[in-house]
Amino acid sequence: MDDQKIIEERVRSQTRLVSQAYAGQLDSLECPDCRHPAVSVWFAHPAANTYRTWFICADCDFHTRVQELTKPPFFSADRVSTDLQERDLLTLKGARFKRPSQELM
Ligand SMILES: [Zn+2]
Known about the structure:
Blueprint: H1 3-22, E1 29-30, E2 37-47, E3 50-57, E4 63-68, H2 82-98
Antiparallel strand pairs: 1-2, 2-3, 3-4
The protein binds zinc ion (ZN).
């Protein structure tokens, strides 16, 4: 598989995970890497108007993050991960450090 194919496959599997989440399935999604039905959906809400959706596999290292422009319809406060929020906050701070002219919160 060349790089382009790998990227296409990754985008396709990410799109599939997102569409399953939109359909209301937040657990036992098929992992694109290990193929186990072990991916769960988590959320991070590090700042107003900043929502992120994480897909994390319990059986391997697979994880991917999708940035949402609005609150996802399948957003659940029960699934907000503090760890992920802290990591996201660091990312936001890093972004602010690199781009001082842009106001983030
Ligand atoms: Zn996996």
